[in-house]
From TrEMBL:
PROSITE patterns: G_ENGB. PANTHER family: ENGB-TYPE G DOMAIN-CONTAINING PROTEIN (PTHR11649:SF13), MSS1/TRME-RELATED GTP-BINDING PROTEIN (PTHR11649). Necessary for normal cell division and for the maintenance of normal septation. HAMAP family: GTPase_EngB (MF_00321). The gene is engB. Transmembrane segments: none annotated. Belongs to the TRAFAC class TrmE-Era-EngA-EngB-Septin-like GTPase superfamily. EngB GTPase family. Keywords: Cell cycle, Cell division, GTP-binding, Magnesium, Metal-binding, Nucleotide-binding, Septation. Its cofactor is Mg(2+). The lineage of its organism: Bacteria, Pseudomonadati, Pseudomonadota, Alphaproteobacteria, Rhodobacterales. This is Probable GTP-binding protein EngB. The keyword Protease does not apply. Residues 45-218 form the EngB-type G domain. It comes from the Bacteria.
Length: 218
């Protein structure tokens, strides 16, 4: 009998969950507002999920792939370009929340510190936040800055799920090594959800699975 791997890849969704995800994201998703301070947050009148990741991990591309709208979340080649917490409304579903990129940012230190304070305040104080998706670049695995956000999520008791991005950029023989490193890192974090989602925004890999997860959160 084989021992199951810790943090296995999420199973393909059931037909019902897949359809729920398809319907949620077939309906319009719209930009609501960008928030620069906690008092600017929209009312906590629905469930929300957030997307966190270091600069240039592919957050905007993933949100665009999920929603099927290429220009919804603005991708940038400049690290740290997203300086706000951006809220998007789904039709009859949760808020999608795009958090500022963390780690290296092409901005003054004081500006970066302000982003980090806002990020910590949001993660610690948002009662309607059901899950954080922590995006990890499949080419690099978990970095020190990812560990910092995971530790913050542990402290805030916010369940987070690792989403590997850009998986089409990784050679097959390097994939197992990266997955092993990610699993080892996640095993140290009590708030980590026990399944990974492996995605490629470019190829569409894992997008149906992630849509289904979001659509079925309560």
């Amino acid at each position: 009998m084989t021992t199951p791997l810790p943090f296995p890849e999420a199973e393909p969704p059931s037909d019902a969950a897949r359809e729920a995800g398809r319907l949620l994201f077939a309906a319009p998703t719209d930009f609501l507002k960008g928030v620069v301070a906690m008092d600017g947050l929209p009312p906590g009148d629905r469930v929300e999920v957030c997307f966190a990741g270091r600069s240039n991990v592919g957050k905007s591309s993933l949100i665009n792939a999920l929603t099927g709208r290429k220009g919804l979340a603005r991708a940038s080649n400049t690290p740290g370009r997203t300086q706000e917490i951006n809220f998007f409304t789904t039709t009859g579903g949760p808020y999608l929340v795009d958090l500022p990129g963390y780690g290296f940012a092409n901005a003054p230190v004081k500006v970066v510190e302000k982003w980090q304070r806002l990020l910590k305040a949001y993660l610690s104080g948002r009662a309607t936040l059901r899950r954080a998706f922590v995006l990890i670049d499949s080419r690099h695995g978990v970095k020190a800055v990812d560990e910092e956000i995971m530790a913050l999520l542990d402290k805030s008791a916010v369940t987070f799920q690792a989403v590997l991005t850009k998986s089409d950029k990784v050679k097959e023989n390097d994939r197992a090594k990266v997955l092993a490193q990610v699993r080892g890192a996640l095993s140290k974090h009590p708030a980590a959800f026990p399944e990974l989602v492996v995605t490629s925004s470019e190829k569409g890999w894992g997008i149906d699975t992630l849509r289904a997860i979001i659509a079925t959160l309560e």
